Amino acid sequence: MNGLLQARIALVGLLLLAVPDVAHAQRRRTQEFTRQELLVANFQLDSGANLKLARRVADAVRSRIDKTSDGRQLHVISGTDIRLALTKASFAPDSALQRGDLRILGGNLRADEFLVGTVERAPGGVRLRSQLVLVRDERFVQPLPAFAGSDADKIAEQVAKSLLALRAQMPHERRCENHLREGRAGEAVKAAREGVALVPRGTLTRICLVLALRTAGVPAATLLDEAEAIL
User: Fold this and answer.
1) What phi and psi, each to the nearest 5 degrees, are found at residue 33?
2) CB of 165 within 8 A of CB of 143?
């Protein structure tokens, strides 16, 4: 009996010791920010562009980003949901909306980010020029490189790879925004500079950096240098 009692006491002791470790692991797994909803809009068509290929590119981009992104960080709104929402709003399901209508569609689908673009005619296929836009503040725009070809899947693969690489700046940009909102311009500058160091071609953290520097009251020459770096 004594042996059984001692074993139970030892087991309880082990469980009590394990609780802090479990709690620590749970805190470590907690995400800093909520998952973002990305709306890949139907792309605008330039004169002479192939409509069917353009639509295939949009669907392929949605699919590729969805497959290669971290689902805990980013969710891609499906083409089916987009077409259903467009149909309910009395638009053709393949409509490429202007920014005002797209904003309404994004609100209905609870989008946090837009990927918008234009498909142009190119030798042997099409060229996609696109940019990532933050819904909460459309001054925040991240251009992507232009990609061309006749294979929608290959174009989508390049777009997805570029987009996800550029989105590595997002935690730093969001920290910058949060610090600015809370009146901590110095911390906002620090967060933005960390994002710039991580993704030098990232414009989103550079835009927030300029806003933070202006709030911090830096000399005009410094502000101009950072603003020109966005370009």
Assistant:
1) -125, 155
2) no
Residues 226, 231: Cα–Cα separation, whole Å: 9
Residues in CB range of 120: below 8 A, 6 or more apart:
46, 49, 126, 127, 128, 129
Asked whether the predicted pLDDT for residue 9 surpasses 50, the reply is no
Rounded distance between C-alpha atoms, residue 209 and residue 189, angstroms = 6
Predicted TM-score (pTM) of the model is 0.83
For 158-205, write each residue's pLDDT tens digit: 999 999 999 999 999 999 999 999 999 999 999 999 999 999 999 999
Closest CA to 127 of 108, 155, 102, 154: 155
Residue whose tokens read 């996800």: 164
Q: Report the C-alpha gap between 189 and 170 in whole angstroms.
A: 14
CA distance 176 to 173: 5
Task: Say how many CA atoms lie within 13 Å of 71 toward its Cβ.
Answer: 4
